[in-house]
Amino acid sequence: MSITSLVVIVALVALALYGIVIYNQLVRLKHGVSKAWANIDVLLRQRHDELPKLVEVCRQYMSYEQETLKRVMEARAKVAGAQAGGDVAALGEAEGALRLGLGNLFAVAENYPELKADQNFQHLQQRISGLENAIADRREFYNESVNNNNVRIEQFPDVFVARMFGFKPFELLEFSEEETRDVNLKQLFG
């Protein structure tokens, strides 16, 4: 065996090992995104289960605010539909509507001292607020995982391995403009 053949064989083995390392790192990133999504999914399901309880407690006190309660439940249904379909863009939009509806519901609840004093309402409000904070934290982690994956599959030389094995980019979980806009408290209490 000649020196040239040996150099070529060593180079091919090194290239194959490097390709394997890149592949394994891309797989780890892909599964990291899936894990981050699963964490969000768990929290969304928990909140999904808590919202009807909150609406029912509010319904007992808020006889004139049925439209607010209806909007929260409609937004909840949209979130569930987007979540079930795995549509990240639709989920972001539905989440924005739901968060806006919950903000309105909690703001309107300020007009009902009996409701604010109700132990069930206080517990559910705290529980849902805690879930909202956890979802925001998990969304940040998910988006970071998605960004890491998307950058890696576009970087050289990873892009060759990613294309060869069909690694795809993921969508960021972004909320609608409505959620990032300030809530008009005058309108809520006007």
Verbal overview:
The protein is mainly α and 190 residues long. The chain has a single domain (3-189), classed as LemA-like domain (de novo design (two linked rop proteins)). The protein has 8 helices and no strands. It has helices spanning 3-61, 66-85, 88-109, 113-117, 119-152, 158-165, 177-180, 185-189. Helix 1 (3-61) packs across helix 6. The model is unreliable at 179-190 (pLDDT under 50).
In short:
The chain is mainly α and 190 residues long. 83% of the residues lie in helices and 0% in strands.
* CATH homology superfamily name: LemA-like domain
Question: What value does the average pLDDT take?
Answer: 85
What structural category do the secondary elements indicate? mainly alpha
Strand content: under 5%
| CA radius of gyration | 24 Å
The helix content is over 70%
H/E element sequence: HHHHHHHH
CATH topology group: de novo design (two linked rop proteins)
Number of strands: 0
- Rough shape? rod-shaped
Total domain count? 1
Low-pLDDT residue intervals, each spanning 5 or more residues: 179-190
Write the CATH architecture name. Answer: Up-down Bundle
**Major sheet size, sense and barrel closure:** none
Report the end-to-end length measured between terminal Cα atoms: 89 Å
What labels describe this entry?
190 residues, mainly alpha, de novo design (two linked rop proteins), rod-shaped, disordered C terminus
